[in-house]
Design brief:
The complex is a heterodimer. By secondary structure, chain A is α+β, with helices and mostly antiparallel strands. In chain A, helix 9 runs antiparallel to helix 10 and helix 11 runs antiparallel to helix 13. Chain A is globular. In chain A, 49% of the residues are buried. By secondary structure, chain B is α/β, with parallel strands linked by helices. Chain B folds into two domains: 270 residues, Aldolase class I (TIM Barrel); 71 residues, no CATH class. Chain B has a nine-stranded mixed β-sheet with strand order 9-10-8-7-6-5-4-1-11, sandwiched between helices. Chain B has a three-stranded antiparallel β-sheet with strand order 12-13-14. In chain B, strands 2-3 form a two-stranded parallel sheet. The N terminus of chain B is likely disordered. The chains are: A alpha+beta, B alpha/beta. Chain A: One of its GO terms (cellular component) is plasma membrane.
Chain lengths: 606, 406
């Protein structure tokens, strides 16, 4: 009597509150121990109200009404990550379920990321249970958004359930409805075991905890297991279920969801999407759909204090234990010193990693502007992959490929013009447009990922007064007319400022950055020319005039202490300068010049 | 007197000094500064510790101020020990000292003479606003013992004076200078401010001309600094007044230096020019060369033998402490050897007499050839073992000091 389901929701539409409420109603969690939003374990997630790592919890439920009233069931709620960067993880979580609760804020309507995840769920052939949350809000418009949901998934408006996770209204009915609508799992209990890994989490005390959904057969704590993508085998130390803490079990059978612990120390050895089987008499055919996560966005991360380099290296090693998608290699920058070039799944992933490095390891970091991966073919036919703009070849380039994405934007209809203008400026091509309801529209564009990575999201938000939402997924590559713009200070190239941009944007980019640097770099004792150049051709030039007055020409009387403190402050400022040739550049200049002010995916909950 | 006080340790209630500091008493010239924290109007650029009558309404601050000053002078005498300690310089600053009656200022000088004794040829200065004195008052001030007066001229241009909130008529400056001369003042100094928003190059030149026409013995010229929390800072933030400009101030400094030198006044500190050695302000030189002085009055700063301390800022609090026979010091700091060295570099680099090379550490000395090559110091190796700034170096003195220190 197992039912496996997940909840698809936008980050602030109340998924965690609903999950908490379900845990309480099913008796898994009592009121007292119900930490708010129990399932989100990491502090950063809790603070930002987003779920990065999915988990699963087992809940007993006795149907309270209707034909099957009194029947007892086991509900496995699988928590999905809610963000664009983790689409692959989402898809694996969905694979582990038979139904998805589509949870939408009754005051806001569906958002682009939710829509994208809904499409994934429909693609995985899940039963969709549409639910409007927050019906207790004065601003709720349940009728309007029920119509919208009905239109999108093709059901009746009356099929859309209405709940308030906060007050508990309608949640009991929802649990009954989940039992009623979710198909029971189907699998061959006598076949060799096959289980899908839908999450993998590093735990300081237990090593890697792997979350699985058993499809066929049975995984017993006595088995040795095999990871089918690599063939690696591990001893099984423990299997169990989460309810809501880890609880040991003898085995996990068809349709069951639980965890296993093997003594593996890095999540890379137990990858999301992989199939687990037994070492002896195991399955020969893995479950489909495994992909190796590929970094899409790269950036250099450098410690502000060069002495922190070893700390940064150790910190990255530690984060990688729990983040199979994180890749990095050492890099040296003339301007920034020793650091790492790091590959991320996307902008949110980048921001989370950076925030964790700064917070958990107490590091102060400078990040270069994020960039994508370029596939460069030279005229002599050699090909290279460029993950750092400063390594962009200077010679004869035949052709450059850049990654493109399919972007989905949901917005009130009023902003269509503004959005189209922005997308065109960002080299987007319109693939289609649909009205979801009278005043809400879905726009689909193919667009270079580099443009999204630059400042697209902020621009989109500001042009739509924050109403538009964005989702994107990589779809391939395209050939583009790209050039590298270098920035020179006193004739010396500052590698950290090099950027690859479209030929048509090179001039405006060069002018803008040179102008920005002129404002950010303090005057030196000599004149400092700032140039933007494509190859040897200078496309923009600014000059920082020499400083002429750097003296306190004021009567401070006998207050020498104040003068000395002022000197100490000045010297402190000087320490935070990076030398570029003879030019002292403040850290703040790097940070400000390198920030495209672009944020990842959605910032609405900051 | 700047208004922001640094953080440091507590000062003893009886005003006593540590043995180490007392051991140095008498080894260096000694002076007294007396802070008079009253003004008739608060100027928009000023962040000094001063109060207008309306800010002190309902307090007895003005009435009991002189008594409190006399009490602190007695406390100073007790704290500095039993040995003879003649006062080489007295400086009454503010605020506007001449808002007090000449007779009141005279009582202060009498007390100084009574407690310490004024040295022969002591320099006794009061600051004054051109509109807070007349011929009779100046004669009285001379009579009670002042021999040097410093007038807050600031500018000769009405629209500049207006931005500065200075209330005096510029035409009064030559008059007060003449009255001071007639009264028998030996040294007359004028304070000028350059770089005020709206001041043209021509305005500044006119102010310098007007100042030089008075044939002062000494000129202090300060760049207008916009300090946080002043009315001027607010006006600039609201864009009612333009921000000061470093390049403009640099130009004006060079013009001032050229005109003053041509008129026979030579620089002896970055912002100060004097007709000759005798016309230098010896009191200020105490500050710049590690001399000893006791700062009397609210918010006043003192230094004796490597101990710096500063008084409570508000007149009422200051007077209250002294009424209880307690020291009005708010806090003090004891300088270690390296801090004293840093201060010497910081202060003496700004002097025409320069900084003795041996005050620098090895790294600092190593910087000298490049500073000479950049034209920031006059020569390397320094003549007579003293590092002296070039004219351009004076404008970049802070950068030079940072370079010379670790």
């Amino acid at each position: 009597m197992i039912r496996n389901f997940c909840i698809i929701a936008h980050i602030d539409h109340g998924k965690s509150t609903l999950a908490d409420r379900m845990l309480q109603l099913t008796g898994v969690l009592d009121e007292r121990s119900a930490r708010a939003q129990y399932l989100d374990r990491m502090d950063i997630e809790r603070e930002r109200g987003i779920t990065i790592k999915s988990q699963a919890v087992r809940m007993p439920w006795t149907v309270s009404s209707g034909e099957s009233a009194g029947s007892q069931h086991v509900l496995n709620m699988i928590d999905t990550p809610g963000h664009v960067d983790f689409t692959y993880e989402v898809s694996r979580s969905l694979e582990a379920c038979e139904a998805a609760v589509l949870l939408v804020d009754a005051a806001q309507g569906i958002e682009a990321q939710t829509l994208a995840n809904l499409y994934l769920a429909l693609g995985a052939d899940l039963q969709i249970v549409p639910v409007l949350n927050k019906i207790d809000l004065p601003s709720a418009q349940p009728d309007k958004y029920a119509a919208e949901l009905a239109h999108i998934i093709g059901c009746e408006e009356s099929d859309v359930l209405r709940v308030s996770a906060k007050t508990g209204v309608g949640v009991q009915d929802l649990l009954d409805e989940i039992v009623r609508q979710t198909p029971p799992p189907v699998g061959d209990a006598n076949a060799p075991p096959r289980a899908l890994i839908f999450d993998s989490v590093y735990d300081t005390y237990r090593g890697v905890v792997t979350y699985v959904r058993v499809v066929d057969g049975k995984l017993s704590h006595r088995d040795r297991i095999k990871m089918m993508s690599t063939g690696a085998t591990h001893e099984m130390l423990e299997v169990g279920v989460i309810s809501p803490e880890q609880t040991k079990a003898e085995d996990l059978g068809v349709g069951e969801v639980g965890y296993l612990i093997t003594g593996v120390k890095e999540v890379r050895q137990s990858r999301v999407g992989d199939t687990v089987t037994s070492q002896h008499n195991g399955a020969t055919q893995p479950l489909g759909g495994y992909q190796h996560p590929n970094p899409m966005v790269f950036a250099g991360l450098y410690p502000i204090d060069g002495d922190d380099y070893p700390t940064l290296r150790d910190a990255l090693d530690k984060l990688q234990l729990n983040d199979a998608a994180l890749v990095y290699e050492p890099e040296t920058s003339g301007a920034l010193g020793f650091g790492f070039r790091i590959g991320f799944l996307g902008l949110l992933h980048m921001e989370i990693v950076r925030e964790r490095l700064e917070r958990e390891f107490n590091l102060e970091l400078i990040s270069t502007a994020p960039n994508v991966v370029y596939d460069v073919t030279m005229e002599d036919g050699t090909r290279l992959e460029v993950t750092n703009p400063s390594e962009y070849p200077a010679g004869r380039i035949a052709e450059v490929h850049e990654p493109v994405v399919r972007a989905t934007i949901l917005s009130p209809g009023d902003y269509i013009g503004a959005i189209m203008e922005l997308c065109q400026r960002k080299r987007g091509q319109l693939d289609g447009m649909d009205y979801l309801s009278v005043d809400r529209v879905e726009l689909r564009y193919t667009m270079p990922l580099a443009e999204i990575v630059f400042d697209f999201f902020d621009q989109l938000k500001s042009r739509t007064k924050g109403y538009a939402s964005l989702d994107y997924e990589p779809t391939g590559q395209q050939v583009s007319e790209l050039v590298k713009v270098d920035i020179l200070l006193q004739g010396e190239t500052v590698d950290a400022f090099s950027a690859i941009v479209h030929r048509d944007d090179a001039y405006s980019y060069g002018v803008a950055l040179a102008g920005k640097l002129k404002e950010l770099i303090p005057r030196q004792q000599f004149e400092v020319p700032i140039q933007a150049a494509v190859g040897s051709r200078v496309i923009a030039r600014e000059t920082i005039r020499a400083i002429r007055k750097d003296v306190l020409a004021k009567c401070y009387g006998g207050d020498i202490t104040r003068k000395r403190k002022l000197l100490e402050k000045q010297k402190e400022g000087k320490k935070r300068m990076k030398m570029v040739g003879r030019v002292e550049v403040p850290q703040e200049a790097f940070i400000a010049a390198l920030s495209s002010d672009s944020g990842p995916g959605d910032k609405s909950k900051r | 007197m700047p208004s922001t006080l640094p953080e440091a340790g507590a000062a003893p209630v009886d005003g006593s000094l540590p043995e180490t500091a007392l051991a140095e008493v008498g080894q260096r010239p000694f002076g007294l500064y007396v802070h008079v924290p009253f003004c008739s109007v608060r100027c928009g650029y000023c962040d000094f510790n001063t109060y207008t009558a309306s800010e002190l309404v309902g307090t007895a601050a003005r009435a009991s101020y002189v008594d409190a000053v006399l009490a602190e002078i007695r406390l100073a005498r007790r704290a500095l020990g039993p040995h003879e300690l003649k006062v080489q310089t007295v400086f009454l600053g503010g605020g506007t000292p001449t808002l007090l009656q000449p007779e009141e200022l005279g009582r202060i000088l009498t007390s100084v003479d009574h407690e310490f004794g004024l040295a022969d040829g002591a320099e006794v200065t009061t600051e004054s606003n051109p509109d807070s004195v007349d011929a009779a008052a100046l004669a009285e001030l001379r009579e009670v013992g002042f021999n040097r007066v410093s007038f807050g001229m600031q500018s000769a241009v009405p629209h500049v004076l207006r931005v500065l909130d200075r209330t005096h008529d510029p035409l009064r400056v030559p008059l007060v200078v003449e009255w001071a001369r007639k009264a028998g003042f030996e040294q007359v100094s004028l304070d000028l401010i350059y770089g005020t928003p709206g001041e043209s190059a021509h305005d500044w030149q006119a102010s310098l001309d007007a100042a030089l026409a008075c044939q002062p013995d000494h000129v202090s010229a300060y760049a207008l600094i916009v300090e946080e929390g002043t009315a001027l800072a607010r006006q600039i933030r609201r864009r009612e007044v333009a921000m000061t400009d470093d390049d403009d101030q640099a130009d004006k400094y060079l013009v001032a230096d050229a005109m003053l030198e041509q008129a026979g006044l030579s620089w002896y500190e970055v912002s100060n020019w004097a007709r000759d050695q005798a016309a230098r302000c010896r009191h200020n030189e105490l500050y710049w060369t590690g001399g000893h002085w006791w700062g009397i009055g609210p918010g006043a700063h003192s230094h004796v033998g490597g101990v710096r301390w500063w008084n409570l800022k508000h007149p009422t609090a200051y007077i209250g402490r002294l009424a209880q026979q307690a020291s009005p010091a708010r806090a003090r700091e004891m300088l270690d050897e390296e801090t004293r060295r840093v201060e010497r570099v910081l202060l003496e680099t700004r002097l025409r007499d320069g900084l003795a090379v041996d005050v620098l550490d090895e790294a600092g000395r190593g910087r000298l050839p490049q500073l000479a090559e950049q034209g920031l110091i006059q020569q390397d190796p320094p003549a007579g073992g003293q590092v002296v700034l070039s004219t351009r170096g004076r404008l970049l003195a802070d950068a030079v000091v940072r370079d010379l220190l670790p």
